[in-house]
Amino acid sequence: MSGSIEQAGSRTRENAHLLHFLVRLPRPMEAVWPALTTPDGLAGWLAPADVLEPRLGGAVTLRGLGAGRVTAWDVDRIAEYTLECGGRLRFHLERDGSGGTVLRFTYEFRGGAESEPRWRTRFERLIEQVASAP
C-alpha cells in the first residue's frame, strides 16, 4: 500500500481562507500520530516545533508558521493547533482498511496566500516519512 493525496480544495469564508486535503497513508494511525504531534515528527515534513506541549491547551510554536495553543487533542485521532496569527491547522486521522490511515487536514488562515502545491509537497514528504518509519 502506498500513500496518496486524493483531494485538495480551497475556499474563502468571510476573511478566512480554507485549504482541505485528504491524504492516504500506508501505516496504521498509531504510526502516523507521532509525525503530527511530536517535534521530531513535525520537523521531518512540516516545520520545526520549537515548543509543543502535547495536551489540550498546551503551547505550540511552529517555526515559520507561528505560536499558539493546542485547541483539540484526542490521542491517535485529532490534533489541532490554533496560532496567534489567526491560523488553524487541524489533523483528523481515521482508519483506512486493516493497515492504513486517512488524514483529513484543514488549514484555516487569514491574510497572505498559501498554495495548494506547497501543501501537496509537504504531504508528499509526510507520506515518505511515514512509509520509511520503523
Distance between the termini: 16 Å
Please count the beta strands (DSSP E, at least 2 residues each): 8
Q: Would you tell me the overall average pLDDT?
A: 90
**If strands are numbered along the chain, what order do they take across the biggest sheet?**
1-2-8-7-6-5-4-3
- Report strand %: over 45%
CATH class: Alpha Beta
State Rg. 14 Å
Helicity, as a percent range: 10-25%
- Shape label: globular
Structural class designation: alpha+beta
For the record, the count of structural domains works out to 1
Corresponding CATH superfamily: START domain
Please provide a written account of the structure:
There is one protein chain. The protein is an alpha+beta fold and 134 residues long. It has helices at 29-37, 39-43, 116-132, and strands spanning 4-13, 16-25, 49-52, 59-62, 66-74, 78-83, 88-96, 100-110. The protein has one domain (4-132): Alpha-D-Glucose-1,6-Bisphosphate, Chain A, domain 4, CATH 3.30.530.20. An eight-stranded antiparallel beta sheet has the order 1-2-8-7-6-5-4-3. It is built from three helices and eight strands.
Give the secondary structure arrangement, pairings included.
Blueprint: E1 4-13, E2 16-25, H1 29-37, H2 39-43, E3 49-52, E4 59-62, E5 66-74, E6 78-83, E7 88-96, E8 100-110, H3 116-132
Antiparallel strand pairs: 1-2, 2-8, 3-4, 4-5, 5-6, 6-7, 7-8
